[in-house]
Amino acid sequence: MDEGRELLWVRVTGQQVTTIENCSAIKGTGSGSVTGDAATGGLVGSNNSSLTNASNSLGHQPRILTSYAGIDVVSSNSGDNKIKFGGLTGCNQKGYIENCYATGSVSAAGYNRAGGLAGCIEFRGVIVNSYSTGTVSGAVGYVGGFVGYLGTGNNAGYANNCFWDKQTSGLATSAAGTGKTTTEMKLQATFTSWDFTNVWNIDSGVNNGYPYLRNNVTNNTQMPTAATYVFPSNVATGLPRTVTVNWRYTGDEEIIGFKIYQNNSLISDIQWTGSKLYYQQLNIADWGSTVNWKVAPYNGV
Question: Does the structure show a pLDDT above 60 at 216?
Fold first, then answer.
């Protein structure tokens, strides 16, 4: 599968030729979340091998490559098998993930095996060069900032050169991966051995400063449509100390978000939700003076 947008695979069971590549699930005009009873993820519910035991080799691992999820994962708090929730995939048992990331929150109230990227990777599941930033909360057992459950003995999976944001996730521990601060997660030097020439890129103005995939940020190659009806107007005098900025976006392009500038200084970065109307409350540093405003949609171009 290739170039997917706003898609969710419930279960992938196959061999190495079973591949999800260059795909994403992002928040659109709806709630921006997926809810499930078990094995639920932002992009894939379950990424499992066709084999049923732990003796599988790399030749029998379905793969998720250069893909990401930016939607929230929520447990339904129903059903009997209350396990496996992750920002990208709920379960990566016997699966293989490389060059992927997840930014959505994982809310697994009353469940086991919850992680920022994957709920579990037992039975030799593998994750390479990937990261997560979303909040992980509510799980009652086997919960981690990146992976919830690793497995034991010959059944244990592993993660290589993987990271999670300890601050945004709210968790300092994980079954796999290395925890970093938000500042560290926005530095290329943190991600040693990652390919920042062909696969990854990092820019303070894209993806909230976290690494992003070169081939999977947006399909756009042109600058997006400008924001309109910005209020207060682009030049305003005598504003109060706190002001609510309103604007409209009528472009048809898929964008990443909006940058708000005050006197040519970036003061806020707002995520695009797919709607037409936006507002953001901001503090004014130069109270009573003339303030120049700019609201700039961006898409990585």
Answer: yes
Nearest to 4 by CA among 25, 34, 19, 33: 25
Pairing state between β 200-201 and 212-213:
antiparallel
Which of 196, 204, 132 lies closest to 169, judged by CA? Answer: 132
Structure tokens at 41: 């993820």
String of b and e for 97-110 (b: at least 16 CB within 10 Å)? bbbbbbbbbbbbee
243: its two tokens: 């002001």
Residue 158, token pair as written in the block = 């592993």
Helix (H/G/I), strand (E/B), else coil: 45 = strand
CA 96 vs CA 93, 120, 138, 301: distances in Å: 9, 12, 26, 31
Kindly state the average pLDDT of the residues 216-231. 60
Alpha helices per DSSP H over 172-214:
182-185
Domain 228-298 in CATH 2.60.40: yes
What are residue 106's phi and psi, to 5 degrees? -125, 110
Task: Give the whole-angstrom CA distance, residue 130 versus residue 195.
Answer: 12
How many secondary structure helices (H) and strands (E) does the chain include? 2, 33
Q: How far apart are CA 280 and CA 45, in angstroms?
A: 34
Domain ranges of the chain: 9-213, 228-298
Span 13-45, pLDDT tens digits = 555 568 899 888 887 545 578 888 888 999 999
The whole-number pLDDT of residue 6 equals: 41
Give, for 271, the enclosing helix (H) or strand (E): strand 265-271
Measured at the CA of 228, the angle between CA 225 and CA 232, to 5 degrees, comes to 145
The predicted structure's pLDDT at residue 54 = 45
Three-state SS at 264: coil
